[in-house]
């Protein structure tokens, strides 16, 4: 556990053809900001950054899907897996594009979903 | 919602609507597949939610095939829009002859979104993996 945890260098970013994930450490929860398509190409990269945050001992993770324009099952699988391993995970989702797949799969009942990043960071 | 006359006109226009894509069987092809799925769905006069559902289903169909395709293989994805609904089939040479797991979350999503979903291995030395769905038009 000798990882460099210096704040400035602790920003991770991964991209795919149609999206990106950024790991942002704050004084509060660690935020994983996803943009574009959270599909089979991007989901493994989100998974890697989630694992990295968890290795750093971050208990409360916020996965911000505000700027996601497509949510595939591969992305939802990562959310479910993370939620089961890290019950403190909060998801920011608003808008039909993201909420509809979560509703169809009944993940809206299982995940801790917030309408805005501020609400998710505050936890209410 | 539509009068009988309008409905039959829509049917005749979409009865022979067929689109076929050939792309590298790679994750990077998925945005193209999703774009075409949305275009086909709009042409079939679906609701906004139904268009989004079809886009999700088609992405899943092609994701399943790409994940099990031989590296460097070609993905074929065909959209067939008829009076009954939209049939989408994707195929690519198989990596190791495995079928998608019916227990997986992805397959569960596919069954939830569509009226029929099936996968099989074709004949021939390539052992192509096929995944096909049918989304019936709302009656």
UniProtKB/TrEMBL annotation, chain A:
InterPro entries: Anti-sigma_ant, STAS_dom, STAS_dom_sf. PROSITE patterns: STAS. Residues 19-124 form the STAS domain. One of its GO terms (molecular function) is anti-sigma factor antagonist activity. It comes from the Bacteria. Transmembrane segments: none annotated. Belongs to the anti-sigma-factor antagonist family. This is Anti-sigma factor antagonist. The lineage of its organism: Bacteria, Bacillati, Actinomycetota, Actinomycetes, Pseudonocardiales.
